[in-house]
Amino acid sequence: MNGTDTPADGTSGTIHAALDGLGPLARQLGQIHTRLWHEQVHQDLTGPQFTVLGLLRTHGPMDQGTLGTLASLDKSTAAPMLERLRRRGLVAITKDDKDRRRKLVTITDAGRELATTLAPAVVGISEEMLAHFNPVERDQFLSLMRRAVEAAKQ
After folding, report:
1. What are residue 16's phi and psi, to 5 degrees?
2. Where is coiled-coil annotated (predicted)?
3. pTM assigned to the model
């Protein structure tokens, strides 16, 4: 180390790049979104749970695998999450009459009402977080984020 606490091997540029990179920014953005969610949307319903209710509200009943794929849930978290939603009376889970191994998930009236009630607050968080962008920048930012997510899935 020299007198400025930077490594003599030149790695400080790499460290700075890592600290200013996608990971820390994505984490900070996620933390801000989570804080706003708890303050403005719901303290007992998570974003992924809202996504599940929203998908069922807009697309109707579907099997657990399809729902997990559409909601970008991994298999290890989908079943426990759906069970929590079922216990709260927000979804119903039944076996498919045609294939007893398949589970069908249906939103209940309570789940439909909750999704409908919370949707404006969810949109409000996005609006608040994107308020410093003009409409063109918002579209570009969201488009680039979607592209990064899709590329990472491949």
Report:
1. -60, -45
2. none
3. 0.84
